[in-house]
Amino acid sequence: MKDNKIETSDFEGYLLHKLEPATVEIEEITKFERGFSRETWFVKTKINGTTKDYTFRRDIPGGSIQPFPLRLEYDIYDRLSNTTIPVAKTLWYEENPTEFIPGPDFFVREKVEGSWIVPNFDNPAVEYDDVRISACLEHMRKLALIHTADWKSLGFAEIFSVPPNAASCATHTVERLVGELRNFQVEPLPVVTEALEWLRENAPEDSPCISLLKGTNGIGEEIWQNNEIVALSDWEESSLGDPASDFAHTQELLPPPTGWSNGTNTFHLKDALSFYESISGIPITEERLNFYRVVRSLESVLFSHHASLPLIAKEKPLARFAWVATEVMHGGEMGLARASGILD
């Protein structure tokens, strides 16, 4: 391993050490092209002559941008590995990196074949609206699986803060985020102080249930194969709360105000929410969804302050820390200022 870059010999040595007395041959290693707060490596091997693909996951140099421990992400995958919710199966967590792969902790899971790209989804031509509608509906199906999961029996109350009741989901989420922010806030935040008054006064109380939430959804966050989501990835903003929260950040998978056309009808947000309710039994109102879009701005401020810590400590982190600490911070504050009436 040189300058934090993992090499073939590092993986080979580590797997030989971990899987002893197996024979290990590394056929290919690929660093995933995406991934903002953590890095992911795909390792194709032959173990005793049989092809086996592994996924290695660890924090980027400087730590994680989000205040969400890697171990917690592993625990989420581990709890979901034997459910109907499609995720990559966990194999093990490495708390004490060896001489082969020194540095931060990492965990290993099985690799799921597929791609984060939905073919022609980004093609603006109207004839591909049916591709976008199909992807949206598939995403609704998978969100329904997450939101109807029995989070209590799966042990999520052991690792997440639990709202006292469904009616308090919104308030609980806001106070949880503010509490996390206070742990590492590096400067006064008058915009947040003003926005908190608006958030507390406008927190909806009509959430029908407490659900497991994925946190980050949409294009770029899931693994697709033949127009189906075969693995839900990036659980690093997961929590318990109002299902409407997951609709506030779905990265392109909800129709725009103008909708999408399937040739005869136009597919709008209300159609997506109606479909979701028909399979989950959970109503999602646009009022609750819009509230959580403002909460998303508060989350942006939270991530920005956390990203600034290695900058303040002069640890020479990756440039993305500086981008999050400035531009993402500005966007979060602007969203809060508009919602609370500071800006038109």
Tell me what you see in this structure.
With 344 residues, the chain is α+β, with helices and mostly antiparallel strands. It folds into 2 domains: 8-110, Phosphorylase Kinase, domain 1, CATH 3.30.200; 126-339, Aminoglycoside phosphotransferase (APH), C-terminal lobe (Aminoglycoside 3'-phosphotransferase, Chain: A, domain 2), CATH 3.90.1200. It is built from 8 helices and 11 strands. The protein has helices at 8-19, 70-80, 129-147, 169-182, 190-202, 269-280, 286-312, 319-339; strands spanning 24-31, 38-47, 50-59, 90-94, 106-110, 211-213, 222-225, 228-232, 239-241, 260-261, 266-267. The protein has a 5-stranded antiparallel β-sheet with strand order 1-2-3-5-4. It has a two-stranded antiparallel sheet with strand order 6-9. A hairpin with a 4-residue loop joins strand 10 (260-261) and strand 11. 36% of the residues are buried.
List keywords for this structure.
single chain; about 350 residues; alpha+beta; Phosphorylase Kinase, domain 1; Aminoglycoside 3'-phosphotransferase, Chain: A, domain 2; 5-stranded antiparallel sheet; two-stranded antiparallel ribbon
Characterize this entry briefly:
This protein is of the alpha+beta class and 344 residues long. Helix content is 38%, strand content 17%. The protein is globular.
Note the main sheet.
Answer: 5 strands, antiparallel
**How many individual helices?**
8
Mean pLDDT: 92
Number of domains: 2
Strand order of the largest sheet: 1-2-3-5-4
CATH homology superfamily name of the largest domain: Aminoglycoside phosphotransferase (APH), C-terminal lobe
